Structure to design on (476 residues):
């Protein structure tokens, strides 16, 4: 049985400050937890699971059996899914700029950020740099939206323009830029994706090597930031 | 002041059955409501707005002034945004197959469906056909996620395989198909997008003219259905 303290401690991981203090994030559901377990370098602190999940993983350490009702109490999902893991924060490193890096400027919606990390993973982009105003990538909603890609994509938080200034080339996704099909393929540098409602900040436009756009054929005013990221990567990468 | 009956009637539009009976859907927020007002053929039943919104539209008919507190009571948003409109259902027609049509197979998440309609609008696809198990396109969450594209994209609900069987060519998005870059451009026929977790139904695969895929370079197992739609349309359309 889970003590009140344990339940409270897990629930506290929904708050960035307390999560940072514990150095632990929450991952839920069979798919995501199993990917994390099977990814080299990922350190699982504790797994809380219902009995029929545990039957498949008899050799795992740090597993605690919980009832469905207990899982409901510690879960961040509307419909909890058999297993919840507390995972250690990944070591803080510097982004590798050997291949194309994504720079996310003020992507505040957790679902959007998680979806972008999943897209990056699909296209083999393993370095995603976030500006200060981005959602926290260890937010349970972000982790969930990555569908397991959080295990493979390294996210670097709170990088401001100072860092971007030292990079070259810097490609910025804007509404008015070179058509992505005439842009040529890119293998290095940084691709900047901005906040959808406010667009790209002036200071970032100033340091852009080039601007790239998705040609519009119909009436919609804009595309969601995650959709734009997927489309641009699918055209710009070799 | 809004009567209890009016508030209840508006709230009832969150339920498909009652919405269908009224033949009215809810659109909220300045951007979406203003796009609907300005789109030819869209019939606005009633607009509920706070005074500072109405100041910009002094000539509009059917506008009722509400307080912020009243707007909060009738709104389907967490943070209501100045104006809520009740809009008449669009006339039921048959999909035009003169240009490429999207067929959505069991896209159940309202946010995903709305985002797909926004993408269709961006790429100039104005006919989207939905299978029976899709979310209802008049669901307030879908309307909101379209960001106004609901005004331009025609959605045809509850079309089952009978209809798809009469179409040619039928392109189906699958994990194992022809690489979209080697697929060639398409201007007619149907592109089928399936439910992400279950994939495309066998019966649909059986009637596919061709299968098309987004090449995967990294570790993610799949892409969200809306992301896949955006990427495929950006490559397949001329």
């Amino acid at each position: 049985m889970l003590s009140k303290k344990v339940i409270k401690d897990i629930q506290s991981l929904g708050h960035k400050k307390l999560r940072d203090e514990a150095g632990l994030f929450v991952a839920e559901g069979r798919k995501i937890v199993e990917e994390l377990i099977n990814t080299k370098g990922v350190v699982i602190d504790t797994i809380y699971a219902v009995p029929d999940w545990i039957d498949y993983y008899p050799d795992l350490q740090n597993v605690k059996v919980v009832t469905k009702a207990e899982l409901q109490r510690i879960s961040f999902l509307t419909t909890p899914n058999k297993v919840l893991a507390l995972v250690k924060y990944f070591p803080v490193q510097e982004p590798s700029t050997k291949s194309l890096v994504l720079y996310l400027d003020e992507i505040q919606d957790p679902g959007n950020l998680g979806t972008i990390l999943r897209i990056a993973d699909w296209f083999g982009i393993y370095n995603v740099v976030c500006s200060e105003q981005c959602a926290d990538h260890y937010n349970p909603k972000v982790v969930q939206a990555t569908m397991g890609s959080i295990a493979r994509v390294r996210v670097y938080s709170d990088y401001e323009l100072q860092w971007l200034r030292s990079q070259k080339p810097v490609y910025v996704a804007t509404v008015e830029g070179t058509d992505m099909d005439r842009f040529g393929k890119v293998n290095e540098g940084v691709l900047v994706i901005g906040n959808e409602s406010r667009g790209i900040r002036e200071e970032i436009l100033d340091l852009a090597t080039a601007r790239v756009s998705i040609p519009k054929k119909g009436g919609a005013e804009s595309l969601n930031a995650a959709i734009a990221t997927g489309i641009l990567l699918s055209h710009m990468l070799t």
Notes: Residues 110-122 of chain A form the longest helix (13 residues). The interface with chain B takes residues 31, 111, 115, 118-126, 147-149, 152, 214, 216-224, 226-227, 230-231, 234-235, 237 of chain A (CB under 8 Å). The first strand of chain A starts at residue 24 and ends at 28.
